[in-house]
Write a structure and sequence with these properties.
Order of helices and strands of chain C: EEHEEEHHHH
Strand content of chain C: 15-25%
CATH topology of the largest domain in chain C: Ubiquitin-like (UB roll)
Chains: A alpha+beta (about 80), B alpha+beta (about 290), C alpha+beta (about 160), D alpha+beta (about 775)
Distance between the termini of chain C: 55 Å
CATH architecture of the largest domain in chain C: Roll
Oligomer: heterotetramer
Distance between the termini of chain D: 42 Å
Number of helices of chain D: 21
Helix content of chain D: 25-40%
Largest interface: C-D, 62 and 62 residues
CATH topology of one domain in chain D: Aldehyde Oxidoreductase, domain 4
Strand order of the largest sheet of chain C: 2-1-5-3-4
Shape of chain D: globular
Radius of gyration of chain C: 16 Å
Largest sheet of chain D: 7 strands, mixed
CATH architecture of one domain in chain D: 2-Layer Sandwich
Structural class of chain C: alpha+beta
Number of strands of chain D: 28
Strand order of the largest sheet of chain D: 3-7-1-14-11-12-13
Strand content of chain D: 15-25%
Helix content of chain C: 25-40%
Number of domains of chain C: 2
CATH superfamily of one domain in chain D: Aldehyde oxidase/xanthine dehydrogenase, molybdopterin binding domain
Chain lengths: ~80, ~290, ~160, ~775
């Protein structure tokens, strides 16, 4: 089970849950499980967040792999100048 | 809008006098073109005086120098004997804008634009300069401190313009200096500017002095009380402090995007002291 | 509205053009003569991107009326290289990476050439103050100043 | 490491990661260089098309006003006027019309209102109408004939005032995100975000020394020298062409197509050379207006902003109010760090406060940390990205407090940072563990640098600060087209702001094993390549590099296949090295290697054109840390601060072209000097900007600054074939704190408000403290 950490203000849509464990292999599976479990999450969650898998940050990448022992953080999407 | 470039003073006068709709004189144009572009002014006629020899010449007169109103700062700086006699005036002209602006900007334009922050005006006032005005009523020679009456306001009558500026003869043991403060090292409008001109007698006593300050009132101010603090004795720290205090005393500045009232008054004194020490040093070695 | 017929020389060539009284030299160079190497960054003489020389004198072409330049010699960035030979300043700017976006570069080159014509051995301080009317937001000026100083040394030798 | 003083030109090679490269790490002349030193290079306003009109914009003189009516009839009747547009020419976008575009999701309902005011004018300079006419004089005259009936409303400029009850409401339908909002109530707070881990209360209890400070910063403009400009041409059949100065022509195409209701592919967009962007040219302003005018007139329309319009109507970055509290033990271990950041967004949501909150304490390994951010609407132009958006504002405050607390416990500021510095595997202040990073390496390089070791002259002060930025990757495409003589055309879709055509071509030449002058890089239009995200987030040499290396490998794969056919051997028995195909496994005796030119010459016979292409969505951008060291002198009588020496030390991962890496470091530092000392927006009581020009918006000039020393630290980013990290943004993060810390060292006064302009500094000297918010 990968360890999932929600940052920013996502916990407002997850009954206050900031950390959870999920059995997911990709970011797409992660997004689907999160939005089914917490319907309050924004519909465009996957467009709003960046996903850090064991320290490497992914943006707009459904199929990046999540290992069973991965630590995954959902962050606000990062834009640059 | 019409553009004219007369060859003579009389042609310029008749053009200016004959025109309605706020005609403008064009010398270096570094203020005029910005105001045109910004729509601040919308003249029907622009009279370029750069084809008039008198407005473009630097000549000696009565031991001093007559400088055409449209002579650029760059040309002024390149005039060795004038620079040696009136380094403060030349420094003031040299402080106006960038090298590019120096190639165009003139003392006549700087004076007639009548900005309270004009750099050359306090230096010219300190130098005791006068300017030659020509108009339908003939010619007159007027002290520089009498030209500006308020921001953008001058005593020039319809059809009248500044033809040239006279820097008087420079006695021995005399020196002048101009300092201004700006937030950057270049390209800003003076937050405060101070011009000091003084002469020493054989014993090193101050025999004459003029002090002028800019950007602290609607027009540049001649400060007689500051001069009195210097004249008649040796210029020591006490005299300089008294002079600086006299300068601060006449300041009536405003708060704006370039500085605060308190800041301008404080720095006016600081610059007066620094300019005075430079002028004194120049007089001593002159 | 009446236009003015102006005869002048630009980069060594006789040029004639018609201009409105309110048109600046920069307007005519860019929009009528299509010499777009001179840039408009501010139109108020504060950025130097439109720098040209008139009779050898460095000016901002945004602060000159086109009607004023009759009979004068104008040099722009387009006239700086000699045929297929870049001016030493142009080559040094390339070698030293003294440009990033490049929009201020023509103005800097025209201004720097005017400096070296007038003072072949400038100090760093003299270079910095001479170029203070040319804004660059990319480079922090370091490589530009080094390029000008190195070109001056090269020309002297 | 490379020192700009020692190696400012020529072909000194930046040190590879133990590898020896032919092109990577050299200082080759950029391929677009000659065009840019001769005046040939075409920027946004340099294009002239036949029958082209001039477009101009009418802008709101009011900071906040209802627009009751707009009467354009007199303007339309003026001879020479070909089109007039208002809000009525843009269909509204549905609520929640939020689409992924470029780097961020874009709210098109906000965008359509920002490019052309609808119900209200929300800031001075907000576009109200636009005109296209045969020349500029007539267009200007036409604007003066447009009658607008405004109902002026109360306005608010300051973010803290905008949060108060009873403040004028900017967007009546705004729903606060991330916080409770009582039903029916209205607010200017668009968003609240919170980051951190541990429990700061526990951490502060462990502290021997706690310091708590409040700071303010002013909005600053990117200050690119080239104003926004474009030429739009729509034809009767609804197809369009757009030429513009932008950081991302694909992104601009998407925005414009959405706002005008066009098929994206019907719009062909070509990026001009860009005269600086720094984040400010990632959005559209004039472009949709020019297209709408051209659609009406069926003639090309050129629009270019004046410098005044750039200041009044385009996005600066946020001004902010910041609160920071840090606790340490006497031996220099940080026990807790806490911050509340209030960023002003302008008239629409979208300040970079979330990124500021994430970066605020990133240069430290912390057990107990929290950062809270608020995104606040005010009657100012909508903020746009500016170099490391959000980070410089937050790190100005946090790095000032870190410096003060190090001083309080008598510890050297760099040793203090080293003691608390994160490394690979450390949990970051915003959550994830750090990948390979160079924070410690930059701190050590700064500590050991001659600058830090040289004693100060009397009266001077020295300051240091460390900065962090994420960097990003993103969608990128590149194509290599092999020509019949063996030279190669490299087609890129990433706008080149500062020399990336050079760095990307160098990587292509390195991969192919050919001379750099055989690779001709160019930026293709939107029809020439697949999608490319914009140039921003310091992504181009990173993501573009991966795409170019991929395209080169694709090309090499085909070249090996052709050689295998030529020799009639299995392709597995062919290798590519030094620009030629070589047969391996014993074939070598009777087979001469095939150089690229040979294969190119015969490509028709061996199967036709040879093209290498690669399209990716690059991930795993390597974050970059930088540490700045600055010396200052202060004129105690006028309050003027002089920067006398400046050194930038930053991790580049790998410097592909060291000169342009140094250029990023130097440019960022000098922009930071302006931000620290003089740049600010000055508004009058009516919410009108008083300094909308380069005369009184004071960017540093050449004589204001010293040479900027640089040290390129290279801790490779494992996700890039050459180890590249983005370098463009981190350099603007540390300067404001470093300079403030240097002024504190010189005067013994800690400033908490930017800019440290002469009146403010002198007032502080007179008052004996740095909290002089009354001085302007």
């Amino acid at each position: 089970m990968a360890r999932i950490v929600l940052t920013g203000n996502l916990q407002l849509h997850t009954e206050g849950v900031k950390e959870l464990e999920l059995d997911v292999n990709t970011i797409r599976q992660l997004m689907r499980q999160l939005t089914t479990r917490y319907p309050g999450l924004p519909a465009d969650l996957e467009d709003e967040v960046a996903v850090s898998i064991d320290g490497t940050i992914y943006q707009d990448d459904w199929f990046a792999e999540i290992a069973p022992d991965s630590e995954v953080h959902l962050l606000p999407k990062i834009g640059g100048g | 809008m019409r553009y004219e470039s007369p060859q003579t003073v009389d042609q310029a006068i008749s053009l200016l006098a004959g025109a309605g709709g706020d005609p403008r004189v064009l010398a270096g144009g570094t203020d005029l073109l910005v105001q045109l572009r910004a729509g601040v002014i919308d003249p029907e006629l622009i009279v370029d005086i750069k084809q008039i020899d008198e407005a473009m010449a630097i000549s000696t007169e009565a031991g001093g120098f007559r400088v055409g109103a449209a002579v650029s700062g760059a040309r002024l700086k390149e005039h060795d004997t004038l620079s040696a006699s009136w380094p403060g005036v030349v420094e003031a002209a040299d402080l106006i804008g960038s090298t590019q602006i120096q190639g165009r900007a003139s003392m006549g334009g700087n004076l007639c634009n009548a900005s309270p922050a004009a750099d050359t005006v306090p230096a010219l006032i300190a130098a005791g300069a006068t300017c030659a005005l020509a108009g339908p009523g003939g010619r007159r020679e007027v002290p520089v401190e009498e030209i500006c009456t308020g921001p953008g306001q001058t005593i020039l009558t319809d059809g009248e313009f500044v033809v040239s500026i006279l820097l008087p003869a420079r006695g021995s043991r005399s020196g002048d200096a101009y300092l201004r403060f700006i937030p950057r090292t270049e390209m800003d409008i003076a937050v405060v500017g101070v011009g000091v001109s003084l002469s020493l007698d054989r014993d090193g006593q101050c025999s004459a002095a003029r002090v002028a300050v800019g950007a602290v009132a609607p027009t540049a101010l001649l400060v007689p009380a500051a001069a009195e603090a210097l004249v008649g004795g040796t210029i020591d720290d006490a005299a300089i402090d008294a002079m600086a205090a006299a300068v601060r005393a006449v300041c009536r500045p405003i708060d704006d995007k370039r500085g605060t009232v308190a800041y301008r008054i404080e720095v006016a004194g600081v610059l007066a002291e620094r300019a005075c020490r430079i002028a004194l040093d120049r007089a001593g070695s002159a | 509205m009446a236009k003015y017929h102006i005869t002048t020389r630009i980069n060594g060539d006789d040029v004639e053009f018609l201009c409105a009284p309110e048109q600046t030299l920069l307007d005519v160079l860019r929009d009528d003569l299509r010499l777009t190497g001179s840039k408009e960054g501010c139109a108020s003489g504060d950025c130097g991107a439109c720098s040209v020389t008139i009779d050898g004198r460095l000016v901002c072409s945004c602060l000159v009326l086109a009607a004023e330049v009759g009979g004068q010699e104008i040099e722009t960035i387009e006239g700086m290289a000699d045929g297929d030979r870049l001016h030493p300043l142009q080559q040094k700017f390339l070698d030293f990476a003294a440009l990033q976006c490049g929009v201020c570069t023509p103005g800097f080159l025209v201004a720097a050439k005017a400096l070296l014509d007038h003072n072949p051995n400038p100090s760093e301080t003299e270079v910095r103050y001479w170029l203070a009317g040319n804004l660059c937001r990319c480079t922090g000026y370091d490589k530009i100043v080094r390029a000008v100083l190195d070109t001056a040394a090269e020309i002297r030798n | 490491m490379t020192d700009s003083n020692k190696a400012s030109s020529g072909n000194g090679t930046g040190n590879g990661n133990g590898k020896d490269y032919k092109w990577v790490g050299t200082r080759a002349v950029r391929p677009d260089g000659v065009d840019k030193v001769t005046g040939r290079a075409k920027f946004g306003a340099d294009l002239h098309l036949p029958n082209m009109l001039v477009g101009k914009v009418l802008r709101s003189p009011h900071a906040h006003a209802h627009i009751r009516s707009i009467d354009t009839s007199a303007a339309e009747a003026l001879s020479g006027v070909k089109a007039v547009i208002t809000r009525d020419d843009f269909s509204d976008q549905p609520k929640g019309a939020v689409q992924p575009a470029g780097e961020m999701t874009i709210n098109y309902r906000d965008m359509v209102r920002n490019v052309m005011a609808r119900e209200k004018a929300l800031y001075e300079g907000h576009a109200i109408a636009a005109v296209a006419a045969v020349d500029a004089r007539i267009a200007t005259k036409a604007l003066s004939l447009i009658k607008v009936d405004f109902e002026v409303l109360p306005h608010v400029i300051d973010p803290v005032a905008a949060m108060e009850d009873g403040a004028p409401i900017i967007q009546e339908d705004l729903i606060a995100d991330g916080m409770e909002q009582s039903p029916g109530s209205m607010t200017n707070i668009a968003k609240r975000v919170e980051f951190g881990h541990g429990d700061v209360a526990v951490g502060f209890a462990e502290a021997d020394v706690v310091i708590e400070r409040e700071f303010t910063t002013q909005p600053v403009h990117q200050g690119y020298i080239e104003p926004h400009a474009c030429v739009a041409s729509m034809t009767e059949d609804g197809q369009g062409e757009l030429w513009l100065s932008t950081q991302g022509h694909y992104v601009a195409r998407g925005h414009c197509a959405t706002l005008l209701g066009l098929d994206v592919s019907k719009l062909r967009v070509q990026a001009s050379e860009i005269g600086g962007g720094f984040g400010g040219k990632t959005v559209v302003y004039l472009e949709p207006l020019a297209l709408a005018l051209s659609r009406k007139a069926c003639q090309p329309v050129k629009m270019a902003m004046t410098r005044e319009e750039v200041f009044r109507a385009t996005g600066p970055t946020s001004g902010a109010h910041l609160w920071v509290k840090v606790g340490v033990t006497n031996d220099g271990r940080i026990t807790a760090a806490d911050a509340v950041l209030k960023y002003q967004a302008g008239a629409f949501p979208g300040s970079p406060v979330a990124q500021g909150a994430q970066c605020a304490f990133a240069p430290y390994e912390l057990n107990h940390v929290r950062t809270i951010g608020y995104d606040i609407l005010v009657n100012r132009p909508k903020v746009a990205a500016y170099r490391a958006p959000g980070a410089p504002i937050a790190e100005y405050a946090t790095e000032s407090v870190m410096d003060e607390i190090a001083e309080a416990i008598g510890m050297d500021p760099l040793e203090f940072r080293l003691k608390n510095a994160p490394k690979q595997g450390s949990q970051s202040s915003y959550g994830p563990k750090f990948p390979a990073i160079g924070c410690i390496e930059t701190l050590e390089a700064a500590r050991d640098h001659d600058h830090y070791q040289t004693p100060l002259k009397s009266g001077q002060g020295r300051g240091v600060a460390t900065g962090y930025w994420f960097n990003i990757g993103g969608q990128t495409s590149a194509t290599l087209n092999l020509s019949e003589d063996g030279s190669v055309a490299l087609v890129l879709g990433t706008v080149d702001v500062g020399g990336t055509r050079a760095s990307l071509a160098m990587m292509a030449a390195e991969q192919l094993g050919i001379d750099l002058d055989k690779v001709r890089p160019m930026i293709g239009d939107t029809s020439a390549l697949g999608y490319n995200m914009l140039t921003g987030g310091s992504r181009v040499t990173f993501a573009g590099g991966i795409a170019v290396v991929g395209a080169a490998q694709d090309l090499i794969g085909t070249l090996k296949e052709r050689a295998a056919k030529f020799w009639d051997i299995p392709v597995d028995d062919v290798e590519w090295a030094d620009g030629e195909a070589r047969a391996t496994n014993g074939y070598t005796d009777n087979m001469q290697p095939l150089p690229l030119q040979e294969i190119a010459k015969d490509m028709a016979k061996t199967g036709g054109p040879i093209v290498g292409a690669h399209s990716i969505n690059a991930q795993g951008a390597g974050p970059s840390f930088g540490t700045h060291v600055v010396d200052v002198d202060v004129d105690r009588e006028t309050g003027r601060v002089w920067v006398t020496r400046y050194t930038v030390v930053q991790d580049a991962g790998k410097a592909i072209h060291p000169s342009y890496v140094e250029g990023q470091y130097q440019g960022g530092a000098v922009q930071g000097i302006g931000w620290a000392l003089n740049e600010e927006y000055i508004y009058d009581d009516n919410g009108r900007l008083e300094n909308a020009g380069f005369l009184d918006y004071r960017v540093p000039v050449c004589s204001d600054v010293p040479m900027i020393d640089t040290v390129i630290v290279e801790v490779p980013n494992p996700t890039h074939p050459y180890g590249v990290r983005g370098v463009g943004e981190t350099p603007i993060v540390p300067p404001m704190a470093a300079i403030s810390n240097a002024v504190a060292d010189a005067l013994g006064i800690r400033f908490t408000d930017l800019p440290m302009s002469p009146p403010r500094v002198l007032a502080a000297i007179k008052a004996g403290n740095g909290d002089v918010t009354t001085a302007n």
